[in-house]
Amino acid sequence: MSGVFRLAIVDPQDNSREALKETLSDLDFVWLESECTRYELFAEIVTQTRPDVIIVALDADPDRALRLVEEMGDLVPTTSILVTSGTADSALILRALRVSAKEFLTCPIDVTELKNALNRIGHATNGASGEKSQRCVAVAVAGASGGVGATSLAVNLGCVLARDERNHVVLVDLDLVLGDMDIFLDSMPDYTLADVALNAARLDLPLLKQSLTRHGSGVYLLPRPLTIEDANILNEDGLRRVLSLLKASFTHVIIDISKGYTALDLAALESADEVFLVTQLDLPGLRNVVKLTRCLDQMDGLSDKLKIVANRVGRSDGQIGFKKAEETIGKQFFWKLPNDYRVMIEMRNNGVPLIERSPRAALTQEIVALAESMPGGSASARGVRTSLTSRWLSFWPSADRTDVGSTAEHF
Ligand SMILES: Nc1ncnc2c1ncn2[C@@H]1O[C@H](COP(=O)(O)OP(=O)(O)O)[C@@H](O)[C@H]1O
Ligand SMILES: [Mg+2]
C-alpha cells in the first residue's frame, strides 16, 4: 500500500452508495478507483483493478453479497474487505466476519469510524507482510528565488529515481504559467494538469497513465496547462485529488512548485512528505530562505519536512561562503549541489537528463546520492550524508571563501 488506499465499492442501492461516496470524499488518503452497482459484475472489476480495499454493501441482497465476499476472499486474498449494513444484526456481523470480511460498518457510516477501520486495515496489512511495502514519497521542490535551479533538480532527481525499475516516478509541473519541465525533457505532452484536474472524478489508474507523458528515462510527466486561462481551472481541492491519485499510483511524486507561493503551491507543500527549498549562496536567495522558513514553519507539520538545498556551490562570482551562509540562515544545508554550468545547460538545451548525458559529472553524482538517500533509493540516508564530506573535498575550493562581513543585518 502506498499511503493512499485504492478502493472499489459495490452497492446496488443508489442512496447508500452515494452517501458512502460522499463520506469517502472527505478522506484524502482514499482513492475511489471503481464503483459498481451490481454484485455479479464486481468480481471482474476487482480482478482487473486489484484495489487495496473493497467495500461491499450487504443490504440489497445479504445472501448474494456474502457469497460475493467469500468469493473475493479466494480471488484477491491480499485485498482487504469491508462490509456495510444498515442493521447491526449480530448474526449478520458474524456471518460477514466468517466469510473473510475484515471490518463491519453500520450505516449511516460515520467518517471517523471509516477512517479508523481503514487505518486498522493499513496496519494489519503492513504487519502481516512482515515488511512495509514501499509507500509513496511526495517531494515538493521549491525555490528561494527565480532561476535558482529548482526545476533542474526536480527533473534530474526524478530521472535518477526512475532508473530503478521498482520505482514509478511522476513529475508534476505546478508552475502553471511559466513551467518548463516539458522543455527539460524535450517532450510534447497530449494532456496537461488542467485535463487531469477536470477529469479527476472519473479517472482510474489506466486512464491516468494514458494521460501522462512517459519520457524515455521511465519518468512520467504531468505538465503545466497549455494556456494561462487553463491554469485557472485548477483549485486546491482539485489539486489535492490529483495528488492523491498520483500518490496511490506512483512510488515517487515530484512537484515543481512556482515561485509565487500561491494557495495551490501551499496545498502541494502540505501534501508533500518532503520539501526541498533550493537556494544559491547569494544574498537575495539566503534572505528569502530566512523569510520563507519563518513563514512555512507556521504551517502545520512543514518545519519537519523542510530541507534546504544549496545549489551552484563553488560558483566563482562572489558567492557567500558556505559556513557563513549556514550561519546566516541559522540552519544546516541538507544537500549541496556543485556548480556546473556547461553540463547543466547542455542537458537543458538537448532535453536529455544528466544521468543519461553526463552520468559521471560531480553534479550528477550528487543528485544520485540525494536520490539514494530517499525511500526507494538503495543507500541509507545516513551513509550517504557521511560520505558527502569526503566527496565534496574534490570540488569545493574553500569552506568559506567570501567574507561577507555583516550579512545577517540584511535579514
Ligand atoms: N548546479 C547548477 N550548475 C550550473 N547551472 C545550473 C545549476 N542548476 C541550475 N542551473 C542553471 O540555472 C538556470 C535556472 O535553472 P532552473 O532549474 O530553470 O531554475 P528555477 O526552476 O529555480 O527557476 C538554468 O539555466 C540551469 O541550467
Ligand atoms: Mg523552474
- Tell me the name of the CATH homologous superfamily of the largest domain: P-loop containing nucleotide triphosphate hydrolases
Ends apart, CA distance between termini:
44 Å
Integer tally of domains: 2
Mean pLDDT: 85
* Poorly predicted runs: 127-133, 379-411
Count of extended strands: 13
Tell me the CATH topology of the largest domain: Rossmann fold
Helix/strand class: alpha/beta
How would the global form be characterised? elongated
Q: β content, as a range?
A: 15-25%
How would you describe the overall organization of this protein?
The chain is an alpha/beta fold. It folds into two domains: about 5-130, Response regulator (Rossmann fold), CATH 3.40.50.2300; about 135-410, Rossmann fold (3-Layer(aba) Sandwich). Helix content is about 45%, strand content about 15%. The chain has 19 helices and 13 strands. It has an eight-stranded mixed sheet, sandwiched between helices. Strands 2-1-3-4-5 form a five-stranded parallel sheet, sandwiched between helices. Helix 2 (about 40-50) runs parallel beside helix 3 (about 60-75), helix 11 packs parallel to helix 12 (about 265-270) and helix 18 runs antiparallel to helix 19 (about 380-390). It is elongated. The two termini are about 45 Å apart. Residues about 125-135 and about 380-410 have low confidence and may be disordered. It binds adenosine-5'-diphosphate and magnesium ion. Adenosine-5'-diphosphate binds next to helix 6, strand 12 and helix 16.
